Amino acid sequence: MNTKPESQSLAAWVEETREGIDSGRFPVRAFNDQAVYDLEQERLFSKTWCFLAHESEIPHPGDYVTRYIGNNNLIVARDEHGKIHANLNMCRHRGNVMCKAEMGNASHFRCSYHGWTYKNSGELVGVPYMKEGYEGRLKRKDWGLVRVRVDSYEGLVFGCLDPEAPPLDEYLGGFQFYLDLYLKHGLGGVEVHGPPDHWIADTDWKICTENFAGDGYHTPVAHQWGFHLGYFPSSGSTHSQGWAVSIPGKGHGIGLGHGPNFPPFGGFPDDLVAEMKQSLSPEQVEVFSRTRTAVGSVFPNLSFLMQPFSLEPGEIGVRFVTMRLYHPVGPGRMEMYSWCLVPKNASQEYKKEAYRAYTLAFGQAGTFEQDDFENWTKVTQAAGMTMVRDVDFPYIMGMDSAPDPEFPGPGHAVVPYVNDTNFRNLWSRWADYLAGEV
């Protein structure tokens, strides 16, 4: 684990990093460093919109889950009127954890220390010995749970710790166009299929965000068995076909991979395709019908992947969607949350097959997941070595790439799909937050 060098202040290092990104350089130190981790907690996670839950995880009044923004543990609950709230999971009396379960259903939360009781929307409603102990000095309305801003897009619930931050719609900045690829599978949208897998990994969260912002470069190497055995409906030589799309100045990015002779919307059942064509815009249909694999990240730490997978080599297989959140718990260490999203209106048979494909490929013990985490863990370990303190990585692919004038979607779209453009955009936004410029 590194600490900041005595010869250079952290502020100076951040400014040097910002300058280097423009020329395609990024420091190894960023991926495993105590001082960088602390600065991320202070300046990044305190200001960004971060994913909390999918609405289908808390469908009924009283349903709740506990989640994190940075090092802040939150209760995300649906009240009796159907409204979703997020509150800090801490009693206002002496700071005890209010809710010790990860999920459940409750109309109220009662502190196990002194018994203060709150509605699931956060209001303080019960104080033991109120008359005897406080003699009228305590006003319950002033001592509710600490509230967190919430907003949502197509079932995705986000929270923000900064009351002055721009609204979620502005924060996403047009990336909604691409989120619809994962969220508008039919007129009913999508839902989670079971609770998320989650586990602790000795991996820096930023490595994962970068990979899922469109790293098609690693696929023919890290997952080469998939090509050799015919599980990809393409080959290593054609894998670079497609677009890398970023939202300039926002940090979001997506890789949209094509495939030779790949059928439009391949891997989806016909009835679902018909609904998707109704729920998507003509421009979205044009892009998505040609997309074989879509791997994207919402800055800072939420990612999605959609691709077909088959147990029969050479077959198109079934489409699945995985949504994942990389929650940092220390320098070079994170808690991974991984969901499977399925279309609400799909048959139970399709949902079952999509979940099976997700589990085999990107579940906790999935074949692709194991490939990735082995590499990500080793990268994080190497980033903590003392000799790499002044070492940079090259991010120079596509430095001169011009936007594709024929691309119908928003953002900066370049070809080929194998490109570093999305990553330079990602790191520029990350550095802006660390520099206090956002």
TrEMBL record:
The keyword Metal-binding applies. Pfam families: Rieske, Ring_hydroxyl_A. SUPFAM superfamilies: Bet v1-like (SSF55961), ISP domain (SSF50022). InterPro entries: ARHD_Rieske_2Fe_2S, RHO_NdoB-like_C, Rieske_2Fe-2S, Rieske_2Fe-2S_sf, Ring_hydroxy_dOase_asu_C_dom, Rng_hydr_dOase-A. PROSITE patterns: RIESKE, RING_HYDROXYL_ALPHA. Gene3D superfamilies: Naphthalene 1,2-dioxygenase Alpha Subunit, Chain A, domain 1, Rieske [2Fe-2S] iron-sulphur domain. The keyword Oxidoreductase applies. Keywords: 2Fe-2S, Aromatic hydrocarbons catabolism, Dioxygenase, Iron, Iron-sulfur, Metal-binding, NAD, Oxidoreductase. Residues 49-159 form the Rieske domain. This is Phenylpropionate dioxygenase-like ring-hydroxylating dioxygenase large terminal subunit.
